[in-house]
Amino acid sequence: MAGNTPQTSSNGLDLSQQVLATACIAVVNNYRRSHVTKLEAIIMLVETISGELFATPGRVSTVTGPYLAMLDEVESELARATDSSTRGRTTHSDEPAPVDEEAPLPEDRSRAGSVEPGEPARKRSKLDYSSIDAAVKCRKFQPLSPSLEQTNEILKNWSQDPKEVQRYLMYHKFGPEFHKSGWTEIIAGECINLDVVHTIITSSHTVDKQTEVLGGMEIKYGVLEAASKKIATDSDWYAAWNKSADAVKFAFPHREAELNGYFAFISKYFSQANPSAHGRVIRFNKAVRNRVGSSCRLELTNFREFEDLIFSHFNADGRQRNDPMDTKSSSGSSPSTSNKHDPCQKWNTGECSRSAASCRYAHVCSFEQDGRTCGRRHTKTKHHKDSKPKST
Known about the structure:
- The protein has helices at residues 15-32, 38-52, 60-89, 130-137, 146-158, 162-170, 180-188, 194-202, 234-251, 256-272, 278-293, 307-314, 345-348, and strands at residues 210-214, 217-221, 368-369, 372-373.
- By secondary structure, the protein is mainly alpha-helical.
- A hairpin with a 2-residue loop joins strand 1 (210-214) and strand 2.
- The longest helix is centred in the first third of the chain and has 30 residues, at 60-89.
- The protein is flat.
């Protein structure tokens, strides 16, 4: 019986637990000494703890948590030490700087700012941009506007630590309400997904998905709870755009005139087009913003740069003119004529996001009595059970 009792050390820990703790602390110390990267340290911790607790996988995350917090603390210490040494080089002092005997030698370190804190030192040659410089000299480029120059400088600066910028914007006391992945797109200078913004506005579910890469494995968490809803009407677009523009203006106040000008530009298309053609305006807007988000030389108000997109979406021979989502097809007939006389069940329950013109089904009452459908322009909720509908 005594042989089944686990041995304990003087500090009251099970010997196996003490061995595991010692191994994990060693990993943290290796990271502190820059012998391994933070990513390698995380992998080593997970493998060590999983190997010891293979029979109780639910405890792995619990045991790993404190050691991951230690790694974060060490990372902060290394960053502060780097800042201090940088400032120290700009001041005059007669006292020699302390030397870490276990730290890599200066000649083994790569250029400042080229590696993450804790990443093992390595030599690498200076980056060569001569081919790009030659291309610039042999081409003629239009100068950028002052606003675009300022935007590019801000994005370049933020690219050094986008996660820190994201935290700053998200938790700023005056920051507008906006979702995490939307801030990520703004910080990277990418096109904001307005369908996601629309989904958040019209749904109580979360739509943010987070992805981390551990070793060669991609881990996704915060799974999408609600299917993304597509913007289908001009009112859907206005609501999503205004919310997104508010966030962009907070991050880039100098872009307010650009955003207001683009809003007026798209609003004219909505006001001049029939409701059945609003789908083309929505797709055109997405194409324009994708082009601007993919270039550092374009603004949303460079309207002359979008003439090909205007042709493809609105000209009778344009590639993007016709789409199954449009009410009218190129032949002038409705693609869903066979369904148009059927009542829209979603509209009758208040769930249809389309207008009466763009919906495949008729926005009429679906209440049935004596084998006949009401068909009036009200929802079936107007009916009382076993009674005639109210007058409309």
